[in-house]
Design a protein that fits this description.
By secondary structure, this protein is mainly beta. The protein has 5 helices and 25 strands. The chain folds into 3 domains: 51 residues, no CATH class; 102 residues, Sandwich (Immunoglobulin-like); 311 residues, membrane protein fhac: a member of the omp85/tpsb transporter family (Porin). The strands form 5 sheets. The protein has a 14-stranded antiparallel β-barrel with strand order 7-8-9-10-11-12-13-14-15-18-20-21-22-25. A 3-stranded antiparallel beta sheet has the order 1-2-5, with no helix packed on it. A 3-stranded antiparallel beta sheet has the order 4-3-6, with no helix packed on it.
């Protein structure tokens, strides 16, 4: 059984009478009800000038599932230089529900800036609204005062107001400013993340990221995302396809070892892929299933040295990953991630390989310690909360909400730099660690996270890669970050 809209019945009657009666008639009816104690139906019928049995019968039923939409509009120039303008609006009703009769306002703006408010009485399932003006139509907005109550039905995933307008403004959103500090080697990674989309468009989005890191002097990428599938939040659908184009100026010193010199280089990359992600919260997800598949192409341009020519190296990449997060008991969350990546092509320098150490890999190894052509990676965490009812005001900027910890372990199978074989005994790497977590809000509204992690490796070995031997770095790796590890 489907119940009426959650609004109290009296408020529903008032909202619909407000659209049906003139302002004076509505005021007169309300004065009779409040000051004289007259029944609402009798007072409304006197103001309306006729029977309203149909009105009260209609709105005494369960609220219908309806969607209004702008179908089309057109302008035709007349012989006298004026324009015959037409706007077509329609109403869709879910199966089993009756078409309600309720007035609908349409705001039309002409190219000369003149505004017109057109009105459909709500009879039938659609209406052609016509008027004559000195200029053609520029934009149309259905229900400009937001008085209609629309709903999603029949598998609809678009925002209920998306089809109410002819023009959709652009929404430019600051997503986050990610910071990762490797305190052990004093390296830092910074990323500014923005997105661009049409207002109320849940399908199409552009993302822009600018970053610098231990391996990149600077870089950036732009991503087009097409979202599809079931609705997870009003702003996000379950699945997305993406195409990403990026450019990076590589930090040569990150890839250098004693006795080896890496040529300065710039990389251009193109990636495509699919993501399926059902998490509700980014900074403290208590449930998450994420599947990723992607493929990419990299062109690395090595700078000319000693009067020589520039060199171009072509590399391909394939990757897949699965993340699982669950909270079997309140304040105790289990998280795991499995991933597989490989690179192939004419690989001559370390900057073309996969880096398996650092915060995004086997965390007990330095970011520049492990390189290879293929990597199988398993990561697991036990996240727990010490206190989750905190409201510490830190200068009206940061409001601390919770304190917790995370015990974690990482295991990786890394191939040599010359092959894709991950079955050799020397391919196994592992580390364990523990971290402190602080959950907070910026300005009391934007959720954020701080993690302070200490991790140590369980396997100690030097690694030969492209003719040079590198060690695993300091025994303990310490990270301070403001983004989740996965």
């Amino acid at each position: 059984m489907r119940f009426m809209h959650a609004r109290p019945r009296g408020r529903l009657y008032y909202e619909k009478l407000r659209d049906l009666l003139s302002p004076v008639g509505l005021r007169t009816a309300m004065l009779e009800v409040i000051a004289e104690g007259q029944p609402l139906r009798s007072a409304a019928q006197r103001a309306y000038g006729g029977s309203l049995d149909w009105f009260f019968r209609q709105w005494s039923r369960p609220y219908p599932r309806i969607n209004y939409r702008l179908v089309d509009f057109s302008s035709r120039r007349r012989a006298d230089g004026r324009y015959d303008n037409e706007v077509l609006v329609a109403r869709d009703v879910a199966a089993g529900d009756a078409h309600p009769v309720e007035p609908v306002e349409v705001l039309v703006v002409d190219e000369d800036g003149v505004k017109h408010t057109l009105r459909w009485d709500g009879a039938g399932s659609g209406k052609r609204l016509r008027y004559v003006s000195a200029a053609a139509i520029e934009s149309v907005l259905l229900d400009p005062r937001g008085r209609l109550h629309e709903s999603k039905f029949g598998g609809r995933v678009e925002h209920v107001d998306f089809d109410n307008k002819s023009d959709h403004g652009i929404r430019f959103v600051y997503n986050s400013f990610g910071v990762l500090l490797n305190i052990t080697d004093l390296s830092a990674s910074l990323a500014a993340d923005f997105s661009l989309s049409r207002i109320q468009d849940v399908h199409n989005q552009m993302r822009f990221v600018l970053f610098t890191s231990a391996s990149a002097t600077f870089g950036g990428f732009a991503t087009y995302r097409y979202h599809f599938g079931p609705e997870i939040t009003p702003d996000r659908l379950l699945n997305r396809f993406f195409v990403e184009l990026g450019v990076t100026r590589l930090n040569t010193s990150f890839f250098e070892d004693a006795g080896a010199e890496e040529r300065a280089a710039t990389r251009l990359r193109l990636d495509i892929g699919l993501r399926s992600d059902d998490h509700l919260f980014f900074f403290e997800p208590m449930h998450k299933r994420r599947l990723s598949l992607d493929a990419g192409l990299r062109i690395t341009r090595l700078d000319a040295v000693g009067g020589g020519d520039e060199d171009y190296l072509l590399t391909g990449r394939l990757g897949a990953g699965y993340t699982w997060i669950g909270t079997p008991v309140a304040k105790h969350t289990l998280a795991g991630k499995l991933s597989a990546d490989m690179v192939f092509g004419n690989i001559d320098v370390k900057s073309q390989l996969l880096a398996a150490g650092g915060f995004g890999g086997v965390r007990g190894y330095a970011p520049g310690a492990l390189f290879g052509r293929a990597l199988l990676l398993a990561r697991a965490e036990y996240r727990h909360i010490f206190m989750h009812d905190i409201d510490w005001n830190m200068g009206h900027y940061v409001y601390v909400r919770a304190l917790g910890g995370a015990a974690f372990a990482d295991v990786g199978l890394l191939s040599p730099c010359s092959s894709l074989d991950v079955t050799d005994d020397s391919s196994f790497y592992a580390s364990i660690g523990y971290g402190f977590r602080m959950l907070y809000d910026n300005f009391g509204t934007l959720p954020a996270l701080l993690r302070f992690d200490i991790t140590g490796r369980l396997v100690e070995r030097d690694r030969d890669c492209l003719g040079t031997v590198s060690d695993s770095g300091p025994t303990l790796q310490i990270y301070l970050t403001f983004v989740p590890p996965f």
